[in-house]
Amino acid sequence: MNKPRHLVVFDLDGTLLNKDSKLSALTQQTLTAMHQQGIHYTLATGRSYQSANAIIEHELFFLPQIYTNGVLTWCPNKNRFSFDNCLTVEQGVNAIKAMESTAAAPFLSAIDSQEQKYIFHGKLQNQVEEKLLARFSEKKGTQILPVEQIKDGLHVTNISMIGPSTDVLNAEHNISKDKQLIAYSGPAMSQQDYRWIDVHHAKATKGSAVEKLKSQLEVDNIICFGDGDNDLSMFEIANESYAPANANEQVKQAATSVIGHHDEDGVALFLKERFGV
What we know:
five-stranded parallel beta sheet, Hypothetical Protein, Haloacid Dehalogenase-like Hydrolase, Chain: A, domain 2
């Protein structure tokens, strides 16, 4: 009997990345060794492709990669995106109206039928937003435009915002009234008393995207790593699921086992022992 073909799926923030939102040297070495031994792995993150592209080494990831909690999948061998459960422009604009405040401005991410990527923004309200937009502007391939220039026919992947905790929690409450939308939020590591929020179509999940990838790659065994609520859909369909020590309690309870802390190479150390890499 052939050994099961594994597909290892990593969340990024709080899981594969350290506290500085980077892949440690040991993690990079471990991923390289896994690839050399033919062990399949990829990532499934709540981050947008633009945001993740700024922090990960794409030469370490060869299989299709899942972004925005399952809305977008980047296929490097085909050099193209596939996307499911995007929002319409009208839905995206309505979400912006529900989220915006005097202290934070939502960013709307979209893609057109030719796979041109866009970020639309309102008047910037804080320094964190200014830094984010400057970082996005440095990356080629994404048009940065004021929200007044948004046009019909785009596929809206997500709406994100970072700002004072009170404003973000109020935005999350307003979004919860629309059953077609789902919001995830958490404390911002870069700024005390700030939170981030990310909003997309309620039908988009990491779990559904991983299941689709499992079928495409014809693998038998799914092994997932994650720390947050948006990882639970992956845990539900995985054969094995692992939560780092820093994960929230609900994720730990759902996991097969709890492993080391994300800032202490917990995932890499587990993989080295599990696969002997």
